[in-house]
Design a protein that fits this description.
- The protein folds into two domains: 68 residues; 40 residues.
- Helix content is 71%, strand content 4%.
- The protein contains three helices and two strands; from the N terminus they run ααββα.
- It has a two-stranded antiparallel ribbon.
- Strand 1 and strand 2 form a beta hairpin.
- Helix 1 runs antiparallel to helix 2.
- The radius of gyration is 28 Å and the shape is rod-shaped.
- The relative contact order is 0.11.
- Bound molecules: zinc ion (ZN).
- Zinc ion binds next to helix 3.
Length: 109
C-alpha cells in the first residue's frame, strides 16, 4: 500500500519535471499552454503530498509490524513472524532433538 502511494507520487513529480522541461524547451509551441505553470505547481504539490503520505504510511506499516512481532518463548527476543524461538533457542531445541533421537538409536542397538 505505502509503496504504491510512494511510487505514484514519484511518477507525478517525474511527469511534472518532464512537462517543465518540455515547456522550457518549446516555449513558443501552441501546446505549451496546456502545461500552465499553475497546473504544474498543483501537480507538483500533489506529487509531494503523495510521496510524504507514502513515507508516513511506510513508517506506520513498519511500526505496526514491529508491534505485532512474535517473541521467543524462552527469552522474549523479538523474532520473525510465525517463528516460536529465536535463532539461538531454535538451534538449541533442534540439537536437543538430535541428541534424543541419537540416544534412542544407540539404546535400541
Ligand atoms: Zn530465545
Amino acid at each position: 500500500m505505502s509503496s504504491t502511494v510512494l511510487r505514484l507520487g514519484l511518477w507525478i513529480i517525474l511527469l511534472v519535471v518532464a512537462m517543465y522541461v518540455l515547456q522550457q524547451t518549446f516555449e513558443d509551441a501552441p501546446f505549451v499552454d496546456f502545461f500552465a505553470p499553475a497546473m504544474l505547481e498543483k501537480a507538483l504539490v500533489l506529487g509531494g503530498l503523495l510521496v510524504a503520505g507514502g513515507i508516513v504510511l511506510r513508517l506506520l506499516e513498519r511500526g505496526a509490524k514491529a508491534v505485532t512481532k512474535n517473541r521467543c518463548v524462552v527469552c522474549k527476543t523479538p523474532i520473525e513472524h510465525g517463528a516460536i524461538y529465536c535463532r539461538n533457542h531454535l538451534r538449541r531445541v533442534l540439537s536437543r532433538d538430535d541428541e534424543i533421537t541419537h540416544m534412542t538409536r544407540v539404546r535400541k542397538e
